[in-house]
Every structure is written in structure tokens, then in C-alpha cells.
Amino acid sequence: MPASNIDFLDALAANQKTNRDKLHELETGDVSISHEALAALGRTARGLLAEAVGAGNSQAMTLSDIVRLFVSKLYWNESGGELIMCAQLDGRTLCMPIPPEHWNVIITGQIQ
Predict the structure, then answer these.
(1) Within the chain, where are the H helices?
(2) CB of 67 within 8 A of CB of 82?
(3) What's the pLDDT at 99?
(4) 63-70 vs 35-53: helix crossing angle, rounded to 10
(5) Rounded to whole angstroms, how far apart are CA atoms 67 and 72?
(6) What CA–CA distance (Å, rounded) separates 70 from 62?
(7) Cβ burial, residue 66 (10 Å; 0-12/13-18/19+)
(8) In whole angstroms, what is the distance from residue 24 CA to residue 8 CA?
């Protein structure tokens, strides 16, 4: 694993008040997020983007644009159950937690 990814995971774990071995990376296609969480993501992300990188046109971004931006890195925090969605912008990483009751792992295939 590259050193920069290790540093990122250590920082993310510290921010989430957990151990880095409790953060599990997920694939975008494996996750479903509630409509309420998506709406909150849109509102919060616009403010974060405007503040963090001076994205004055963040209000013009569609929810689809914001979701695409924040699914570059997804982590399940085993300690609290949150889904942590991260966006990489101008050398910075912005992360937002989604509460456990507002997301789940999509189950495909046949259950036996």
C-alpha cells in the first residue's frame, strides 16, 4: 500500500476516533444510500466545497455531480457503522460520514 494511502487512512481513523483496521474500503457499486442522506450530502457538500476550495459555483453543481465527486473513496467504519464518503480536491481530501441507518451494502445474487 502506498505511503500516502497509509497516511490518509491514519488521519481518517484519527478523525473518526477509531483504529485504521476498523476502516474498510468499499466499491461504489456495492453501496446504496437513502434519499434523505443524498439530500443532506448535497446541502453539506456544497458548503464544504465553497469553503474548502473556493468553489463559488458549487451551488450550481447537480446532486449527481456531488455524488460522483464523493464516491472516489468509500469506507465503512466498523466501529460506528458509518459510511465515510471522500472527495479529493486540489490535493486535499474532504470526507463526510453517512449514518448507519442511511446506507447499506447491496446484496446481489441468490441467498441460500
Answers:
(1) 3-15, 35-53, 63-70
(2) no
(3) 94
(4) 80
(5) 9
(6) 13
(7) buried
(8) 13
DSSP class of 5:
H
How far is residue 36's CA from residue 33's CA, in Å, rounded to a whole number? Answer: 8
CA distance 79 to 88: 24
The pLDDT tens digits for 51-105 are 765 655 666 677 788 778 788 889 999 999 999 998 887 777 888 899 999 999 9
Q: Beta partners for 8?
A: none
Q: What is the CA radius of gyration of the chain?
A: 15
Chain centroid to CA 89? 13
Longest CA pairwise span in the chain (Å): 51
Side-chain-side CA neighbours of 35 within 13 Å: the count stands at: 0
